[in-house]
Amino acid sequence: MTIQWVAVATFLYTEIGLILLFCVPFIPPQRVLRRLVTLITQLAKELSNKGVLKTQAENTNKAAQRFMEENEKLKRILKTQGTDEECVLEAENKKLVEDQGKLKTELKKTSDALSKAQSDVMTMKMQSERLSKEYDRLLKEHSELQNRLEKGHKKGL
């Protein structure tokens, strides 16, 4: 039994030694106090942030609930009015398709008329150039004839 008491005594003395070692201040108290103050400050900030986030979450939940209620109301309204509006929309759609067809035919007619007008303009430009050249030629011929006539009158006098 003595071995057991020796083991117990050794364990207790070792424990007392460790406790005394931990009581010796390795870290100065000022440093511990500063760290404690910063931790308390951080805790206070986090608590205030928690309150703000909690109110934001509550407001967001309330808004989402309102939107869901409005969505349900709109769905009910659409179910009651949906059939009437679908008929109106189909009629409008048919009318728009017909108008589109008419506009396409008008566009084709207009584009054909435009291309014809452009070709007529090109033809007139070419004729104008030819007439201008012919006019210049005739003017030159006229001046040559007048010069001959004047020479003939001068010789005759």
Helix-strand layout with pairing:
Layout lengths: L1 H22 L5 H128 L1
Subcellular location: Endoplasmic reticulum membrane
Membrane topology: Multi-pass membrane protein
Family: Belongs to the BCAP29/BCAP31 family.
Summarize the model shown:
It is found in: Endoplasmic reticulum membrane. The protein is mostly helical. Helices cover about 95% and strands about 0% of the residues.
How does this model look, in words?
- With 157 residues, the chain is an all-alpha fold.
- The protein has one domain.
- It is 96% helix and 0% strand.
- The chain contains two helices and no strands.
- The protein has helices at residues 2-23, 29-156.
- The longest helix is centred in the middle third of the chain and has 128 residues, at 29-156.
- The protein is elongated and about 175 Å long.
Query: Main beta sheet, described?
Result: none
Question: Ranges with pLDDT <50 over ≥5 residues?
Answer: none
Chain-averaged pLDDT: 85
Number of domain modules: 1
Beta-strand content bin = under 5%
Terminal Cα separation, in Å?
A: 177 Å
Total helical segments = 2
**Which H/E pattern describes the elements?**
HH
Q: What class, by secondary structure content?
A: mainly alpha
- Describe the global form: elongated
How much helical structure, as a percent, in the residues? Answer: over 70%
Rg, Cα atoms, Å: 54 Å
